[in-house]
Design brief:
By secondary structure, the chain is mainly alpha-helical. The chain has one domain. It is built from six helices and no strands. The protein has helices spanning 2-22, 24-36, 42-51, 62-81, 83-97, 99-125. Helix 2 crosses helix 6 (99-125). It is globular and about 50 Å long.
């Protein structure tokens, strides 16, 4: 059951990353809006809820899946408690490095999503 979750989660990550890579400008504007939205702290709840089942995966590449799940779970409370610090760091990067650097970060994030999503989908299909 957990391997099915890992596979679906991986496919969803890969699709989201592909859409972000395809429509970079819209993804950039979306992230700008989302960071400034009042419900941004719910992003932390989502990270915890989606990352927690990954820590129980036992199968091929279980250490990799566990580490990604653990990073998600441990990042969630930080976003919940300190959403303003996240916004401030995003604004600081924007002021210091410009929008080009933020676009680069969004592209890097999208590429990482595709890579991790593909790895999750692939390892969930391997025999345990």
């Amino acid at each position: 059951m957990i391997s099915l979750y890992v596979m679906y989660f991986g496919v969803a990550l890969a699709l989201m990353g592909s859409v972000e890579l395809t429509f970079r400008e819209r993804a950039f504007r979306f992230w700008l809006k989302w960071f400034r939205h009042r419900f941004f702290s719910l992003h932390g709840v989502l990270l915890i809820a989606l990352g927690f089942p990954l820590t129980f995966y036992k199968g091929a590449w279980s250490t990799f899946v566990f580490i990604v799940g653990l990073v998600m779970v441990l990042t969630g409370p930080f976003i919940l408690i300190y959403p303003e610090k996240m916004r401030k760091s995003f604004d600081d990067i924007s002021q210091e490095a410009g929008d080009g650097a933020l676009r680069g970060l969004v592209a890097f994030d999208a590429f990482a999503r595709v890579a991790i999503g593909a790895a999750f989908a692939w390892c969930a299909m391997l025999p345990a």
